[in-house]
Automatic annotation (TrEMBL), chain A:
Active site: K79, S154, S178
Protein name, UniProt field: Glutamyl-tRNA(Gln) amidotransferase subunit A
Cellular-component GO terms for this entry: glutamyl-tRNA(Gln) amidotransferase complex
Entry keyword set: ATP-binding, Ligase, Nucleotide-binding, Protein biosynthesis, Transferase
From TrEMBL, chain B:
Name by which UniProt lists this protein: Aspartyl/glutamyl-tRNA(Asn/Gln) amidotransferase subunit C
Record flagged with keyword Hydrolase: no
Keywords from the UniProt entry: ATP-binding, Ligase, Nucleotide-binding, Protein biosynthesis, Transferase
InterPro entries per record: Asp/Glu-ADT_sf_sub_c, GatC
EC number in record: 6.3.5.-
Taxonomic source organism: candidate division WOR-1 bacterium RIFCSPHIGHO2_01_FULL_53_15
Function: Allows the formation of correctly charged Asn-tRNA(Asn) or Gln-tRNA(Gln) through the transamidation of misacylated Asp-tRNA(Asn) or Glu-tRNA(Gln) in organisms which lack either or both of asparaginyl-tRNA or glutaminyl-tRNA synthetases. The reaction takes place in the presence of glutamine and ATP through an activated phospho-Asp-tRNA(Asn) or phospho-Glu-tRNA(Gln).
Pfam family, one: GatC
HAMAP family found in the cross-reference section: GatC (MF_00122)
Amino acid sequence: MHGKTAHELHNLLINKKTSSVEITQAVFARIEKAEDKIRAYVTLNKEEALEQARAADRQISRSPDIPISQLTGIPVAVKDNMCTKGILTTCSSKILSNYIPPYDATVVTKLKEAGAVIIGKTNLDEFAMGSSTENSANHVTRNPWNLEAVPGGSSGGSAAAIAAAEAILATGSDTGGSIRQPAAFCGVVGLKPTYGRVSRYGLVAFASSLDQIGPITKDMTDAAIMMNVMAGRDELDSTSVDLPVPDYRKALVNNVKKMRVGLIKELMGQGIDPEVKAAVKKAADTFANLGAEMIEVSLPSFEYAVATYYLIATAEASSNLARFDGVKFGRRSKAAKDILTMYYNTRREGFGPEVKRRIMLGTYALSAGYYDAYYLKALKVRTLIKQDFEKALGACDILISPTAPTIAFKLGEKTADPLSMYLSDIATIPVNLAGLPAISLPCGFSNKLPIGLQIIGRAFAEEIILRAAFTYEQNTDWHKAKPNV
Amino acid sequence: MKIDVDHVAKLARLGLSEEEKTLFEKQLSAILDYADNLKKLDTERVPPTSHAIALKNVYREDKVIPCSDIEAIMANAPEEANHMFRVPRIIE
């Protein structure tokens, strides 16, 4: 039961072949069995989840007279940087280790309104800052395909939970690749929607001009189902865009004939693992065999994307994280003699090393004398990156590349060298800078670890990337492989 | 590029140990050296992009809506008194 997709379970539910309580219990039984090894979760919400499952079953019993949502009765895991009313929300940080939000993030509200069952909160790099989930103050999460490898990050808990069948669906957030890179490392599907497509209200802010919430799922149909519920304008997030939400399931058409597919030259060269390259090349051949028109495209500004990103994202983070001062919520240092020592010591004790490093870098990039040279310069290069995308996506309908330059690396391999960790996001970062939608889906294996294919689209063209990804999925078997845990 | 760690930490109201200061000075210098690559690009005539999707000021109706439960909000306060957040003395 726990291994099934949401759309498969929905069919069983509406045909009264199973119940939400039965599914939810199966997922918790699976968690009990696998969690010792994986440790995807920070908090489990079993009691409330079973209550939600019983409520869903009452709704289902009245269907089809009163129609139900595709998510009614389906267990969903929520990344622990999204506020859940009455449930601990730690952001995997010591400073929020006791924080119980008085409200739900809009995404959580929408999931609940659709009848989804909230099973728990998943681990992440502290404040979503990292690419391996090793920066969590809670614990390390392991890759279900190889327990010595990282699950990726920062949504490593959500991706590992989906790969290990410890959840049916999960939410992630993506500032520089935090949905797509862990999805690639764990062999699952991860969609980062266009900036503004999904409300960020209640998502603990990291870099507000880059953050976006999206689904992590077992297949493309489930990603479309989740988007149907999550997308849309929200009055509580003024950057959410007022565009109609299509039925994303209608985009799932097995046909890419005449679609113009651009292979990004800069992400198929130096620094990309040869086996990853070979798998992506093969995916390009698959698209060509299915009737797509393959084009090689060049986006020369990509060379500068990682530097640009780490100046902009840290600048925004240094400002966003100023709210953690020990006054209104979160932990306050006991060594708080006066207001200044309260700030200094609260933040010293509450933040982990990567968060401190980024606050320092961002504060520096914004400080007098360096603002023009670093922050403003980065904003200008961001324009160049955006322009390169506009050009490439004028000539192509979608762009493809590896999601990450390598397969999942070993635990501890990159923790001592922050720059090498940052470079693992080289393929995903440019997409956030331009605010575009992109998806990662499995396209092969190397050393028994999954390889991810990234498909990038024009702003608000989620339907086109879903169609391309669905076609690829229907014509390959990679998504059917499951780890042995 | 050398970075004045003490000054930046003070701006960020961030307490750091001596080991962290030494480590960050080294690591941040390496990151800034890498970021100096951006200087190779001529951006004289390039406008900055602070938001990927063009945004204008967004207005909404000024209406009163119920606030979250005050007890649930105050339950998160490190120290509180009569529904107020308590902090160390600021003014002598």
